């Protein structure tokens, strides 16, 4: 076997396989170059989903003829010093332009600010042309035609034009969020024009341009710092959620990234506040010393590695949870919008019928006052079924208050006026409808509360508080369960052994490739310890967290809270309804139930007046 030196064109085509996976990858690299060049206006035009045409025009610093000749050569860049430990630009590898030129028809036209004329160079399937004079505005225009014409096999792996165009749109949106001062325009024959005017330092205004105006009304600002790592951005309230994770954006030192650890931290921060299958909306920006993060993990530069990943995860989870406790209990404005759309402006009366005793309603025409009776104590349900006596005993040993306990009495005297109570965030209870929904009057509108969902959350938060800060009851196994695992999985599990023991799971090393389970959480009753340990090992390998066990325990607590809370169909007195509202105001996370659904919706007086055409 004879070893040969590969040709420059083939080397570039191999590199293009990693750097330029699809048209969106090329768009990302070209937009990054424009931003690094100091552009304040970037225009992107496409055709055929970017496969036929991709053009990026910027008003950056531009390049002269000598720089153009070097720009299309591998590993030539103006953005990198002698080290990889201080990267402060988006691009730095010097691979994008030669990679694109090796698989497409590439033309670069540029003119530096202050120069009398511009210059142009073309690269077609790896063949480099001469630099020649060209008319050009200050800045740079990069035009890519017939992407992958030189490697037609890659075209078979492309998606539809619509899908590829959508991927380019997503790239532009991410860049627009990261750099709000830059004006972005995306146009082409396969799309309507998408424009994001510059918003200067108003980051939230730019995010609203991309994610919609509703985000601005449902976002909580984040600003936290831990050991020289700073987190800023905005997190949506839990009830403002989406069907996928596409509305989660993360940036590290201004670089858009799609890091699994950051996404995992977002998921952990919103645990037990969002329904299964739904995802929060969040825009997070991490700022730290470039030496503490490696952005050179992959040629696409979308993955990063932190020197202290636990610190970053703790910062994200802690900051989001604190912000949700502080401001996250409010209902999403989209709920009120949906309610407004559901209202009908009138009704179509049925044809008049002659009165007869048979057609007489079974209740008074205007309705009778609701019969309030019973209370939270009367609404108590027996212990949650299906978890066994061990689970209930575990909770009893923690002295957890449940619905069987009397609720916190209302802090207001019986004689308090409606106007005085209405000054509270959730207002004064005025009625109970359909034996499940509390209608409360606030100073500037009304609130409708799902009584079962709200009380379920209150009971769950009491249980959760009891689960924190102490070792949970466990049940010892007569014969330890031996779980065979790869040695590296055993090592990972043992690094989390202390935290697992706090949750009632006691494990020990049993030789190089096995784990012995000595005790399991009593709350879980009879369980498959082997499968739990394997699941934990998989989770730690993928996310470097062991949240699965705590999630199981919280699921049990949530289910018990559901069974032990005031049920739908219970008639409540006004005093009981007001007591529930006051407890909600004092309890973090009460804006959504244990399953993530909203516990109340709010309708402003201005919205009500709009329904009747009064505004």
Automatic annotation (TrEMBL):
Coiled coil: none annotated. Gene3D superfamilies: 3.30.230.10, Histidine kinase-like ATPase, C-terminal domain, MutL, C-terminal domain, dimerisation subdomain, MutL, C-terminal domain, regulatory subdomain. The keyword DNA repair applies. The keyword DNA damage applies. Residues 429-572 form the MutL C-terminal dimerisation domain. Keywords: DNA damage, DNA repair. SMART domains: DNA_mis_repair (SM01340), MutL_C (SM00853). It comes from the Bacteria. Residues 207-325 form the DNA mismatch repair protein S5 domain. CDD domains: HATPase_MutL-MLH-PMS-like, MutL_Trans. Belongs to the DNA mismatch repair MutL/HexB family. This protein is involved in the repair of mismatches in DNA. It is required for dam-dependent methyl-directed DNA mismatch repair. May act as a 'molecular matchmaker', a protein that promotes the formation of a stable complex between two or more DNA-binding proteins in an ATP-dependent manner without itself being part of a final effector complex. This is DNA mismatch repair protein MutL. The gene is mutL.
